[in-house]
């Protein structure tokens, strides 16, 4: 029986291994982690992450050929194929601080593999890593090898949160990079054989190691760039009276451009887009490619601009002050169908409003009160460390309360800010909400989910990203 061990039981390691286990009953899959609480949660009925369809998949194979354990050494030493899916945060200190990937967790996983291995291993990079990481890992392993042979493969993950299970079941492509040597090709084939249990062969792409590593960073940079492009257009739409949804639709009809990923928003979030672009920028700079680095930096700058622009729009619309005013925040996760808040635009928007002394009542159907308070007090980039190594926030933010539902969050509020596109926000009883709010009552829709005309008919002053402005807002330019 082939044995797989995955180091890192997070958003990638957990779902990916569950789908492998379900589709490959003849393979034993063990997911290990240094976080005892994470592993206990995987072993309970309350999984540590919310992902539609995940529960059902895990239920079918947990205890059969899918196991979760904190005994890293045992399972790593027994495995034939080891996936490494640990955190790769942005460095906050030293060389490359603020841009380069911090490979501390990766390196410690590699050293542990070298320490405990007694047989040949295929080591698979699942984490997103800088180009040439495989070379560094190879060096660590071979310098400590005791005669054991290692093959390093790059197999970056392309799943998106909220749709992870369907992405894993029907991936657009599976990418495997490896050495172009006989042993390298054999290792590539072994991993291909795993995916071939359910992924059609023509969707499994093989490349050299460096192309695979770089393709992952490039794919995320291209996706984020589309969002920044449409968000830049949204500012121009507001200035000219064009409607960004109509522009996106017209542009996306060109089959060379395509319709996906053209939704204007308050800004992209998530654990990877910003981190991976910063990483790409750093690699370009290290290779003397300043123009290329600056080009990609601009994608992040536009994203920051969009978040600032939103905050400024809120404050300037409300007579240039939100001091002491209650604002209902609808949604805190970085997108719908996930409880993940890593780099969510809601953090920057809330901090911006708190900076102007607003009082916030925050509602999200999947994010806990504790998580929201931690996010609002944590330093930039600290979130991307294993949970038990994150600094604890001593106290919560006083001007922030957490609401059980949208109605409680909006009661007596002067304004609502929609920051996540949860489906339930489309069908709220906005008449009831309006009746319970202070007047004038504002809705700032950062996700373009509400029916603007209907809300204006009720009496709201509505701002929707990239849409023709409410007459109230016309003479109030939101300068970022
Ligand atoms: P995560 O924080 O959810 O999970 C990482 C896990 O690794 C944590 O549970 C942590 O405790 C564990 N860990 C860290 N060091 C360890 C060690 N030495 N030994 C054992 N366990 C260790 O992160 P994630 O979202 O799963 O991301 C993992 C990697 O995958 C990152 O490089 C990320 O960039 C990449 N990625 C993430 C996504 C996504 O949607 N989240 C998608 C594609 C790629
Ligand atoms: C993204 C990529 O889509 C995945 O392919 C990749 O594997 C993953 O990053 C990763 O490497 O971590 P994810 O961040 O989970 O996945 O979610 P996305 O659907 O890409 O959304 C990212 C952010 O962009 C969200 O805040 C979302 O609301 C925003 N977005 C997305 C827009 O503002 N407009 C759009 O049109 C699409």
TrEMBL record:
GO CC terms for this protein?
Answer: nucleus
Instruction: Write one Gene Ontology MF term.
Output: NAD binding
Q: Which SUPFAM superfamilies match?
A: 6-phosphogluconate dehydrogenase C-terminal domain-like, NAD(P)-binding Rossmann-fold domains, UDP-glucose/GDP-mannose dehydrogenase C-terminal domain
Could you say which residues bind NAD(+) here?
Answer: 8-13, 33, 38, 86-90, 127-128, 161, 272-275, 342
SMART domains membership: UDPG_MGDP_dh_C (SM00984)
Q: Name one GO biological process term.
A: UDP-glucuronate biosynthetic process
Under which EC number(s) is this enzyme classified?
Answer: 1.1.1.22
Q: Which domain of life is it from?
A: Eukaryota
Active site located where? 272
Taking every annotated instance into account, which residue ranges of this chain make up the domain UDP-glucose/GDP-mannose dehydrogenase C-terminal?
A: 328-452
**Could you tell me what reaction this enzyme catalyses?**
UDP-alpha-D-glucose + 2 NAD(+) + H2O = UDP-alpha-D-glucuronate + 2 NADH + 3 H(+)
Which terms are listed as keywords in the entry?
NAD, Oxidoreductase
User: Quick one: which pathway?
Assistant: Nucleotide-sugar biosynthesis; UDP-alpha-D-glucuronate biosynthesis; UDP-alpha-D-glucuronate from UDP-alpha-D-glucose: step 1/1
**Enzyme class at the top of the EC tree:** oxidoreductase
Q: Which family does it belong to?
A: Belongs to the UDP-glucose/GDP-mannose dehydrogenase family.
The entry's protein name is UDP-glucose 6-dehydrogenase
Classification from the root reads: Eukaryota, Viridiplantae, Streptophyta, Embryophyta, Tracheophyta
């Amino acid at each position: 029986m082939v044995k797989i061990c995955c180091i890192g039981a997070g958003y990638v390691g957990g779902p990916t291994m569950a789908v492998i286990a379900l589709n490959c009953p003849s393979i034993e899959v063990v997911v290990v982690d240094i976080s005892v609480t994470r592993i206990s949660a995987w072993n309970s009925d309350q999984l540590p992450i919310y992902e539609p369809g995940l529960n059902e998949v895990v239920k079918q194979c947990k205890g059969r050929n899918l196991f979760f354990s904190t005994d890293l050494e045992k399972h790593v030493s027994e495995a034939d194929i080891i996936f490494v899916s640990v955190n790769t945060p942005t460095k906050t200190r030293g060389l490359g601080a603020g841009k380069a990937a911090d490979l501390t967790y990766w390196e410690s996983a590699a050293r542990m593999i070298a320490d405990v291995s007694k047989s040949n291993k295929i080591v698979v990079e699942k984490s997103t890593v800088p180009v040439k990481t495989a070379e560094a890992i190879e060096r660590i392993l071979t310098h400590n090898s005791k005669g054991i042979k290692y093959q390093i493969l790059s197999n970056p993950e392309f799943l998106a949160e909220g749709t992870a299970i369907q992405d894993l079941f029907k991936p657009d492509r599976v990418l495997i990079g490896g050495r172009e040597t006989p042993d390298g090709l054999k290792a590539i084939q072994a991993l291909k054989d795993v995916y071939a249990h359910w992924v059609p062969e023509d969707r499994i792409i093989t490349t050299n190691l460096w192309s695979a590593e770089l393709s992952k960073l490039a794919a995320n940079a291209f996706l984020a760039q589309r969002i920044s492009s449409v968000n830049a257009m949204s500012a121009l739409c507001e200035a000219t009276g064009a409607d960004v949804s109509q522009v996106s639709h017209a542009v996306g009809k060109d089959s060379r451009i395509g319709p996906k990923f053209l939704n204007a928003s308050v800004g992209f979030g998530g654990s990877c887009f910003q981190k991976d672009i910063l990483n790409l920028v750093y690699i370009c700079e290290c290779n003397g490619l300043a123009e290329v680095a600056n080009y990609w930096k601009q994608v992040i700058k536009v994203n920051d601009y969009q978040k600032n622009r939103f905050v400024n729009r809120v404050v300037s619309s409300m007579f240039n002050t939100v001091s002491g005013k209650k604002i209902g925040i609808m949604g805190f996760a970085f997108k719908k169908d996930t409880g993940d808040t890593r780099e969510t635009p809601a953090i920057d928007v809330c901090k911006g409003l708190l900076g102007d002394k607003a009082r916030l009542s925050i509602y999200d159907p999947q994010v806990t009160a504790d998580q929201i308070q931690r996010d609002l007090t944590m330093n930039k980039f600290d979130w991307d460390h294993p949970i038990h190594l994150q600094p604890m926030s001593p106290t919560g933010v006083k001007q922030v309360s957490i609401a059980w539902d949208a109605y409680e969050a909006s009661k007596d509020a002067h304004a609502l800010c929609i920051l996540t596109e949860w489906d339930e926000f489309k069908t709220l009883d906005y008449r009831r909400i309006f009746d319970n709010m202070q007047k004038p009552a504002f809705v700032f829709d950062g996700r373009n989910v509400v029916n603007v005309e209907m809300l204006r008919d009720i009496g709201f002053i509505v701002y929707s990203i990239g849409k023709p402005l409410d007459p109230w807002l016309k003479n109030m330019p939101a300068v970022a």
